[in-house]
UniProtKB/TrEMBL annotation, chain A:
Lineage: superkingdom: Bacteria
Organism lineage: Bacteria, Bacillati, Actinomycetota, Actinomycetes, Streptosporangiales
TM segment ranges: 6-28, 40-63, 69-91, 103-129, 149-177
Protein name in the entry: Uncharacterized protein
UniProt keywords, alphabetically: Membrane, Transmembrane, Transmembrane helix
Automatic annotation (TrEMBL), chain B:
Superkingdom: Bacteria
Name assigned to this protein: Methanethiol oxidase
InterPro entries for this protein: Se-bd, WD40/YVTN_repeat-like_dom_sf
Catalytic activity reported: methanethiol + O2 + H2O = hydrogen sulfide + formaldehyde + H2O2 + H(+)
Bias-annotated ranges (Polar residues): 451-466
UniProt organism field: Actinomadura parmotrematis
């Protein structure tokens, strides 16, 4: 994996972690409801786990496909899908719906998985997956080896991304819970959904151009 | 179009909402009892620094006749900040306005010209019936799965069960019936929730045939109107428990849950006890894992000469207070109680919800008293304080005087009139604002019902953070 890809992976993780909709806000809400910091801290791993499952599924799908199908075809197919999904996110007024504040940590992880998937969190990593995890020519020892390296590549990408997401979401959650207070939402909550959609379209474009 | 920053009228917590700026406009549902003129949303200037303060400055007529506008609500509110599905970049701009008699639901856009909301969509009674199986839409609340609209009646001429129809947040199409398992619930009226506890509460009035031609004496004395509260799982849409207040307590109407999302209690108003014509306010609360309700306020009937009473209550020789609306301030400190029969608006300190302390009372209108407004001391007033709405900062209280067409006619047979009043409320007490008294011809022959304040009010928003 190239340094640039690694940096991109970390940056995207931080971006996902920063988004209140990806979970830190839920962690803070659970803490405020119980008037205790413990639920904030307990919620964060569950949220990260759900996010990792969502991102990991996409990473695995892409790397496995790339191990059996021409890299270029995966890039073009994925890029087109990404641009289309991003445009839909940009233009649609629809938003993810969820009812329920009194949920277990397992349900919270499920919530995080659904939230991340609905936002296409994993899809956003497509350029990185494409650039970083290509099987090395001449060292292909058959399908089994290709699958093995694909899985390890997907695990690596997911782990690095999720760690960055977890660190940023955790820092923001604790900062907001302990010091800043939620009134900051009224001033500082920019429409990240729109930035997010643009990022999806951009990621798709990069993938297509470099295909 | 989505905003870049959260709608400025959304507040994460009730504490933050107390700091909201004062409203400049009030929207009031007004209806023509004769159904000869279209109903309208009247827009009132409530900015004390404005030259037209206290006047009707906008009038949005609806296209049809006989809708009987009643309650209404906003398309979006502070619950858009809730963490499960946050979407704070939508705008609070549409008023969702049901016709209680016609079963049509209107959508009015207040953005371009806030003083003249523009009709942008009408959901016909057939759509509500076909998709949700309901009629007579009543309360509107913005919530996690869309807009929750309570409805008193069933579809296709069926009396019930009444219940809740879910409307899409953005298209306002009827999505369907909210209930998955309604258990024993049949009557409907109001509904609201403890949003952070996944609990919905609903109350009971009666079916269309029990109300639309006036209160039916035999049914009332036979204790046939609603007298229960229902508790639901907001997530699973299932009935959890009913709490019977006792069948002498007829008509459990308005529900005002605590705004503080860590709390699980609220107040319900009961119109009349058939045993002594008193009215009451009940506190619902947790009792272990179950729900319970405790009567915390009783307001007795006032003796009166039978000759001064309308036929519907003349045999009793007393005026029932008829508590038809209550409203809880955003800080959960003050509860306002409308006594539409006796013409009194009471204020209680409910800082300790189990032990309300009366903290002020004003008289206006009333079946017997006909108390005038201080701004027009020679003008006896019919009707009484009815729909009551409190500003987010808790300093201003608005009341209108009409209850419901057919019932107005029974209790005020010589005409209910039309008026609206405003009170200024402080820690020490509350009193009429003599500069604010739109009445009579100001409402163009229509009767005013619910008030909604620009930017939200004490009964419009729910909060996910304490």
């Amino acid at each position: 994996m190239k340094d640039g890809s690694l940096a991109a992976l970390v940056a995207l993780g931080a971006f996902h972690g920063l988004n209140p909709a990806m979970g830190w806000l839920f962690a803070v809400a659970r803490g405020l409801q119980e008037r205790s910091r413990a639920p904030v801290l307990q919620s964060l791993p569950a949220i990260a786990a759900g996010h990792a499952a969502s991102v990991g599924a996409v990473a695995l799908l892409v790397t496995l496909t790339r191990s059996v199908v021409a890299t270029r075809a995966v890039a073009i197919g994925g890029g087109v899908l990404l641009v289309a999904f991003g445009l839909w996110r940009l233009l649609s007024q629809r938003h993810f719906r969820w009812v329920g504040m009194r949920i277990s940590l397992w349900q919270l992880a499920g919530w995080s998985f659904l939230m991340s998937s609905a936002h296409g969190a994993g899809l956003m990593l497509l350029p990185v997956l494409n650039a970083g995890a290509a099987p090395v020519a001449g060292h292909d020892h058959g399908l089994a080896a290709g699958t093995g390296s694909a899985v390890s590549a997907a695990v690596f990408v997911t782990a690095v991304h999720t760690l960055a997401m977890f660190a940023v979401a955790g820092a923001v959650a604790v900062l907001v819970y302990e010091i800043v207070g939620l009134a900051v939402l009224r001033r500082a909550w920019f429409n990240l959904d729109r930035v997010w959609a643009v990022a999806l379209v951009g990621a798709g474009a990069v993938t297509l151009i470099t295909a | 179009m989505a905003l870049w920053k959260p709608d400025p009228t959304f507040y994460p917590s009730p504490r933050d909402a107390l700091a909201a700026p004062p409203e400049k406009l009030a929207y009031v549902a007004a209806f023509d009892r004769a159904a000869a003129k279209p109903d309208a949303i009247a827009v009132l200037d409530v900015d004390p620094d404005s030259a037209s303060y206290g006047g009707v400055v906008g009038w949005s007529e609806l296209p049809n006749l006989g809708d009987e506008l009643h309650h209404f609500g906003w398309n979006a509110c502070s619950s858009a900040l809730c963490p499960g599905s946050p979407h704070p970049h939508v705008e609070r701009r549409y008023l969702i306005v049901p016709g209680l008699r016609s079963s049509r639901i209107h959508v009015l856009d207040t953005k371009d010209d806030p003083a003249n909301p523009r009709l942008v969509k009408t959901i016909e009674a057939e759509d509500l019936a076909r998709r949700a199986g309901y009629s007579r839409p009543h309360t509107v609340h913005c919530g996690p799965e869309g807009l929750y609209v309570t409805a008193l009646g069933g579809a296709d001429g069926r009396e019930g069960p009444g219940g809740i129809a879910l409307l899409d947040h953005t298209s306002f199409e009827v999505l369907g019936q909210w209930e998955v398992e309604r258990g024993p619930q049949f009557f409907a009226y109001d509904a609201w929730w403890h949003i952070a506890h996944d609990v919905l509460v609903s109350s009971e009035w009666g079916t269309p045939s029990m109300i639309e031609d006036g209160v039916v004496g035999e049914l009332l004395l036979g204790r046939k109107y609603g007298h229960k509260l229902h508790f639901w799982d907001l997530r699973k849409r299932k009935h959890v428990q009913e709490v019977d207040l006792g069948d002498e307590h007829q008509m459990a109407l308005e529900l005002r849950p605590a705004h503080d999302p860590t709390k699980q209690y609220g107040f319900a108003g009961v119109v009349v006890s058939v045993e002594d014509l008193s009215a009451s306010v009940w506190l619902w609360h947790r009792d272990g894992d179950a729900w319970a309700a405790t009567k915390v306020i009783t307001i007795p009937a006032e003796p009166a000469d039978a000759a001064s009473l309308p036929p519907v209550i003349a045999p009793f020789g007393a005026v029932p207070p008829l508590v038809t609306d209550i409203d809880l301030s955003v800080d959960d400190r003050w509860l306002y109680v409308s006594c539409w029969g006796t013409g009194e608006l009471k204020r209680y300190d409910v800082g300790d919800p189990f032990h309300p302390v009366e903290a002020g009372s004003v008289r206006i209108g009333g079946i017997v008293n006909r108390t005038p407004h201080p701004a027009a001391p020679d003008e006896p007033l019919a009707g009484g304080p009815q729909m009551v709405e409190v500003s987010r900062d808790g300093r201003r209280v608005y009341v209108t005087n009409s209850l419901y067409g057919a019932w107005d006619d029974q209790f005020y047979p010589d005409g209910v009139g039309a008026w609206m009043a405003k009170l200024d409320s402080t820690e020490d007490g509350f009193a009429f604002d003599t500069r604010f008294f739109p009445h009579g011809d100001d409402f163009r022959g229509l009767r005013p019902h619910q008030t909604r304040l620009q930017g939200g009010d004490a009964s419009s928003d729910s909060y996910c953070y304490p």
